[in-house]
Write a structure and sequence with these properties.
This protein has about 400 residues and is of the alpha+beta class. It contains eleven helices and 13 strands. It has a domain of about 220 residues.
Length: about 400
């Protein structure tokens, strides 16, 4: 991505002068500067063979493909202690295209509604005694892209396969291979989301520009909601994970993902970007797409998030605040049932995850396998790479 921005970012910025937001410009600048002399760094030396290397600082921008490995490993280390010895289910909530268009012009408001109503849908149906009669723990992760980088907002939810009963006195487990009925989830998700959208409109929280400007009229907006109400909304439930280790592996792939990883970029030549993508409508076969560089940049920047927006959120007994106490309650209820552990991890698994998710152990000398130690600081370069005005 950095190479694409270095070669074509300035032309893209000029072509979109006045229409490129501060967040997008900052993302472009961060990715270009990431792990270069512009951000400074440090020198490391091997205790055994004396080999040295310079490690430049990362930009730590959450949209940067280079910066997610270590952040992902650290986040997973914290989540590991929160996993229970139970099955977990993966449920995906997707917005219809007409709602996604509104979401793009109102990212902070509508993405928050999407995540909140997806979690509320799971919690409400699970609490119904006709289905489960329990409180769930849910981790929700927002993704806004499809394989070809088009705008496709959806939420991946990892939900516990059971939870404390509503009176908190016993653990209620869901059936082995069945979570909650997706048609029921879909209808409630649609109703809750549209109700929240109506509230946001009445509160003046939504803006409409360009082709959507007509939706600012209450009657036309109401018609749009009616049209969305007549659609079938997509909720997809996957088979349960085998246990905590599988949950961590899954979360490692999804939580800190960006719109496109560098390993999917195949070539940049003659003003065109070629990248690999999976066609899930035709068996998930890997194909290659070529886009003009400006169009590729446009699609990538579709997925920048507003400042301060949390794309990973926790609900139910995993909600922030009383999480530790609620997890202790869950473990006590599970101990009372004397359930066998599901996919228990072996000692040292934490370190294995760190190495797997960051691809290599940065403390080991690549020449002899000795220990690398930091010996000097590299200051920021006075000659910075291309930067884009973020004022």
């Amino acid at each position: 991505m950095a190479d694409i921005f270095r070669r074509h970012g300035d032309a893209y910025r000029r072509a979109h002068e006045g229409r490129l937001g501060r967040t997008e410009r900052r993302v472009m600048s961060a990715i270009v500067a990431c792990r270069t002399a512009a951000l400074g760094g440090h020198v490391e030396a091997c205790d055994d063979c004396g080999a040295t290397r310079i490690a430049y600082n990362s930009c730590r921008n959450r949209h940067c493909p280079k910066c997610q490995g270590l952040a992902r490993a650290q986040w997973l280390a914290a989540r590991q202690a929160e996993l229970l010895p139970i099955p977990y289910f993966h449920v995906v909530f997707t917005l219809p295209s007409a709602a996604a268009t509104i979401a793009f012009q109102n990212k902070a408001v509508v993405y928050a509604i999407l995540m909140r109503t997806a979690a509320e849908t799971l919690s409400t149906i699970a609490a119904d005694p006709r289905h489960l009669g329990a409180e769930l723990g849910v981790t929700a992760v927002l993704h806004t892209w499809g394989q070809t980088l088009q705008h496709h907002p959806h939420v991946h939810c990892v939900a516990s396969g059971g939870g404390p009963s509503l009176d908190g006195k016993r653990w209620v487990a869901c059936r082995k291979d069945f979570f909650l009925p997706v048609q029921v989830l879909s209808r409630l998700f649609r109703r809750l989301f549209l109700a929240e959208m109506h509230k946001a409109f009445n509160a003046g929280s939504l803006i409409f520009c360009g082709d959507l400007a007509k939706l600012a009229h209450p009657v036309i907006f109401a018609r749009q909601l009616d049209a969305l109400r007549r659609l079938d909304w997509v909720v997809y439930a996957k088979p349960p994970f085998g246990g905590p280790e599988q949950v961590l592996a899954y979360l490692g792939r999804y939580t800190h993902r960006v719109a496109i990883a560098n390993n999917r970029l195949l070539a940049l030549d003659e003003g065109s970007v070629r990248f690999a993508w999976k066609d899930y409508r035709h068996g998930g076969h890997t194909k290659v797409m070529a886009l003009e560089a400006g169009e590729f940049i446009r699609r990538f920047l579709l997925h920048t998030l507003p400042d301060g927006f949390h794309r990973i959120r926790h609900y139910g007994f995993l909600a922030n605040g009383a999480r530790t106490e609620r997890l202790d309650q869950c473990r006590g209820l599970l101990d009372d049932m004397a359930l066998p552990s599901v996919g228990a991890e072996s000692p040292g698994a934490h370190d294995a995850y760190d190495r797997k998710l960051t691809w290599r152990d940065f403390a080991i000398c690549p020449a002899c396998g000795g220990a690398m130690q930091r010996v000097a600081i590299v200051p920021r370069s006075s000659v910075s790479p291309v930067r884009y005005d973020t004022s």
